[in-house]
Design goal:
2 domains; alpha/beta; 23% strand; 432 residues; TIM Barrel; single chain; 15 helices; binds zinc ion; binds the ligand N[C@@H](CCSC[C@H]1O[C@@H](n2cnc3c(=O)[nH]cnc32)[C@H](O)[C@@H]1O)C(=O)O
């Protein structure tokens, strides 16, 4: 039996309104089996982590990503989203081989593990390679083959999407789950969108889609269908009896927010990507007040340039405070819950992860507070939300397995990833 004992840490469970306390965490066979003030190591205990000055919290969950786009980081910044996508990303992506996607995804995963992310939702191509990277690295992920329906491809994308689901759902000790991923309202006409929604409903597969990211998108959809993007999806019946993960949801009017009320799934807020692309401020406070689940993601490193969820946590809270001119909006504990348990709900894995609770999977991180910018220890939620960065995470654990210890990756080799990524990244963007 694999046993891990973490001793003497501040335990921040992220269960609503629970105050942090100091104690030990016992992990057996990938699950948290006990949390108490003092737990003695037994003979079968394999590993003991002395965690004085550390804060233990649930691993962060990145609810919207294209991990392999890490290969395109800092290649074409400061462009409008549609130019960025059409002129830079899509041509570079058209060159990507399966091996490129494997190494690109590992690059993204290395960054995620090193900044305290233990699960992510990914929409991309060559998803077999993404799944293999998830399997090899020990992280958890919800995977979907992105479906753009602009040209007839003889059903190839859809076949790949279904193959991913059949082959990888529940794989890697249950670390891999899958979704169906129509890309966005402006790349998916009504008929295929309706078909994918119906298929998702009949097979009870969650959906993952971009929504209302830019003003241009709103104008495009208005011109084509005389509807808002949210209305378009709603009228097609997508939200009816489907779990839907909506990425962005920046441009929603009050009626749109009403359309999302009571939906299964919810919104993945990507504040840094929205800021950097000048998209706008998503109506997070209104969505929350209507009871819509709001989690958090980074989007690909091609736009956000970093996969550090601590940057998203700060941006999310500060954007709402700025928007309302009110510092009481989106407080520390709530924004941390968005990056953990609320994101877990979007990935449909909240029964297993997202809080530190006995019986749940041991997906957790240790943050080293023995640093000037993390002292003193007044309110730990505030400290983590507003002062910590990904580089303060010193240990990352998924399913009870240590993926990073004292900032050293354990299962994957940074040297190898760096070497492979550098060569591939160069080839992908040559001449673009
Ligand atoms: N191009 C693929 C579909 C890939 S799905 C994931 C796509 O989302 C794209 N993407 C990344 N970030 C964003 C974003 O912020 N908005 C819209 N699309 C994005 C990304 O470039 C990638 O092409 C095909 O035709 O089969
Ligand atoms: Zn995206």
């Amino acid at each position: 039996m694999k046993t891990l004992l973490i001793k003497g840490c501040h335990i921040m469970t992220m269960v609503e309104k629970e105050k942090p306390w100091i104690g030990d965490i016992l992990i057996e066979n990938g699950r948290i089996v006990r949390m108490a003030e003092a737990i003695e190591a037994s003979a079968s205990t394999v590993t003991v982590i002395e965690a004085k000055n550390r804060i233990a919290m649930p691993g962060l969950i990145n609810a919207h990503n294209h991990a392999s786009m890490s290969l395109l980081r800092a290649f074409s910044d400061d462009l409008k989203l549609m130019d960025w996508l059409d002129k830079k990303m899509l041509p570079a992506e058209a060159r990507m081989t399966r091996e490129d996607v494997y190494w690109g995804t590992l690059l993204g995963i290395a960054e995620m593990i090193a900044s305290g992310t233990t699960a992510f939702a990914d929409m991309y191509v060559h998803m077999d390679a993404v799944a293999e990277a998830v399997q090899d690295s020990g992280i958890r992920a919800s995977l979907t083959r992105g479906l753009v329906f602009l040209q007839d491809d003889g059903g190839r994308r859809m076949t790949e999407a279904l193959d991913l689901i059949d082959k990888w759902s529940g794989a890697a000790d249950g670390r891999i789950t899958t979704m169906l991923g129509p890309h966005a309202p402006y790349t998916c006409p009504p008929q295929p969108l309706q078909e994918v929604s119906a298929l998702a409903r009949s097979r009870q597969i969650p959906l993952h889609i971009h929504l209302a990211e830019t003003r241009e998108e709103v104008a495009k959809v208005r011109e084509k269908y005389n509807q808002t993007p949210t209305e378009y999806l709603h009228e097609l019946g997508m939200f009816h009896d489907n779990h839907v993960l909506l990425a962005h949801a920046v441009h929603l009017d009050l009626e749109d927010i009403g359309r999302l009320r009571g939906m299964r799934g919810g919104v993945a807020h990507n504040p840094v990507s929205n800021l950097k692309l000048g998209c706008g401020i998503a109506p997070v406070t209104e969505l929350l007040s209507q009871g819509v689940t709001v989690g958090m993601g980074t989007d690909g490193a091609g736009s956000a340039t970093t996969l550090d969820m601590f940057a998203e946590i700060k941006a999310a809270s500060w954007m709402q405070k700025l928007h309302y001119g009110d510092p009481t909006v989106l407080p520390a504990e709530q924004v941390l819950r968005m990056a953990t348990i609320e994101s877990a709900k979007l990935l449909h894995i909240d029964h297993e992860v997202g809080t530190l609770e006995v019986g749940k999977r041991a997906d957790l991180i240790l943050i080293d507070t023995n640093k000037p910018h993390l002292s003193p220890l007044h309110d730990l939620h505030s400290l983590i939300a507003y002062s910590a960065t990904g580089a303060d995470v010193d240990t990352t654990i998924v399913n009870g397995e240590i993926l990073m210890r004292n900032r050293e990756l354990t299962l994957i080799s940074w040297e190898e990833i760096q070497r492979e990524a550098a060569v591939r990244a160069k080839r992908l963007v040559e001449g673009l």
